[in-house]
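mind reviewing these tokens:
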Amino acid sequence: MSLRISLRELEVFVAVAELGTVTRAAERMALTQSAASQALDKLEQGLDAKLFDRVGRRLLINEHGRLLLPRARALLDAAAEVQDLFQGGELALRIGASTTIANYLLPPLLAAFRKEWPQARLELEVANTRDIVEAVAAFRVDFGLIEGPCHHPELLAHGWRQDELIVFAAADHPLAGRKVGLDELADAPWILREAGSGTREEVERVLLPHLNAWP
């Protein structure tokens, strides 16, 4: 559906509603009185409704105008927000991060970034590796930081940091405090991250093949 009204016409309407005359509205908007009058006429034609009652030289807003006024202000505010997004070179970043990275590595990095770019807008999506890969592929985030491999054929992955995975247990666990064989690890109950986690995938890739008894 093609629009029959414009933002400029709504601007004129709001100015007239607030100031009471086309002359004063035109002065506020740096328009000629003729241009402001034409914009108001076009708006009324586009809506097929009179928005003001003419009383002498003054324009008194009527029921149609009162119905439109809050909606016109909301539309103009929204348009101003859209315009502000692209003015002044404002930087906006949407970052996706897997859970461990978001909890332990990102906070100081984001703090340093905010100090360097205080006007930047940051959005952070936290999920497991698989979900962050999907978010990047779907353009929901600009880039992702993950702990495991990226299997998506249309994405490029680059090494960023190295980390170490360690098997641990409670201090009073029978396997704690001594060297442990693979057969003992295979027989022990495990607590692992959920499917889709990069940490889980690395454990399954590196350790699982050596634990033949692990189903």
About this structure: The chain has a mean pLDDT of 87. The CA atoms of residues 10 and 76 lie 8 Å apart.
